[in-house]
Amino acid sequence: MSVMAKAVRAALFGSVMSLVSFGASAADYTLSVNTALSPQDPLYKGLEEFKANVEKRSAGKMSVRLFPASQLGKDEDLLEQARAGAPVAVVVDGGRLAVFVKEFGVLGAPYVAQGYGGIRKVVTSPMFEEWVQKLRKSSGHQVLSFNWWQGERHMLTNKPVKVPADLNGVRVRTPGAPVWMETIRAMGATPTPLPWSEVYTAMQQQVIDGAEAQDPAIYGSRLYEVAKYLTKTGHINLITGIVTSAAWFDGLPKDMQTLLREESLKAGDSASKATENSLADFEKQMKDKGMQIVEIDVTPFRTATAPVYEKLGYGDLQKQVETLLKQ
Question: Which N-terminal stretch is annotated as signal sequence (predicted)?
Answer without folding.
Answer: 1-26
